[in-house]
Amino acid sequence: NEILEIKNVTKYYGKGSVVTKALDGISFSVEKGEFTAIMGASGSGKSTLLNVISTIDRVSSGEIFIEGARLTEMEEKQLANFRRDQLGFIFQEYNLLDTLTIGENILLPLNLQRKSHEDADRELVRVSEALGVSDQLSKFPYELSGGQRQRAACARAIITNPALVLADEPTGALDSKNSKLLMETFQMMNQSLGSTILMVTHDPVVGSYANRVLFLKDGKIWNEVNRGQRKRQE
Ligand code: ADP
Ligand code: ADP
């Protein structure tokens, strides 16, 4: 059951004599329930890869499919709807809005989908209990610990049941204690809630929490490591 298929994707930046080939014919796929890390040195193409998957940027050639939908042929408006309905994002800064309660923050993506109150409340209970923030819903972000804020941001990313959760250097602004807490939360989302996660990191310790690591170099995948025992059995 493939969630993501990348087929021979190439991405160039610039034009004329200053062209950079940021992605060089990359192909791989991600199955439902996998927790995949993309690792590589600075400049290896990690952010570019995540940007074309998250529909923020366009490929130069090749194809990207998410749950069978061909991103590379969609128009901007379709892409915006696709992002809203099928993708979950976890940012480096938690991006919780200070003026909203934790519950209101977590509900934001559902409000964009114009879900009924009953459906929204049920989903809020589901994700906030799963991630251990159900007692914090009426508090404001500044009243929570760093770990709790992370879990709230994760709850917000998965409240729409996205096909794919994308995270670009999610631990980039965190100390080692909070990095570990966030990776434990990712593992819980992956193992208990079945979230399919694709994460970019340059930190080997962070990457070691994933069950599969793809190594990028000069816009190509040069190695892949699998830890089969963490893979979910459907
Ligand atoms: P990473 O995330 O692994 O650090 P990037 O995807 O940011 O790598 O960059 C890959 C290559 O593409 C690098 O050579 C970088 O300089 C280049 N690049 C990235 N974004 C741009 C851009 N907007 N314009 C020109 N070159 C870019
Ligand atoms: P976590 O393991 O989720 O990071 P902590 O052990 O850091 O949680 O925090 C324990 C308790 O202390 C939490 O219930 C939280 O509400 C409270 N707390 C932590 N940091 C703050 C803060 N900056 N402001 C208010 N309360 C805080």
From TrEMBL:
Signal peptide: none annotated. GO terms for cellular component: membrane protein complex. GO terms for molecular function: ATP binding; ATP hydrolysis activity; transmembrane transporter activity. InterPro entries: AAA+_ATPase, ABC_transporter-like_ATP-bd, MacB-like_ATP-bd, P-loop_NTPase. Keywords: ATP-binding, Nucleotide-binding, Transport. Pfam families: ABC_tran. It comes from the Bacteria. Residues 4-234 form the ABC transporter domain. Belongs to the ABC transporter superfamily. This is ABC transporter ATP-binding protein.
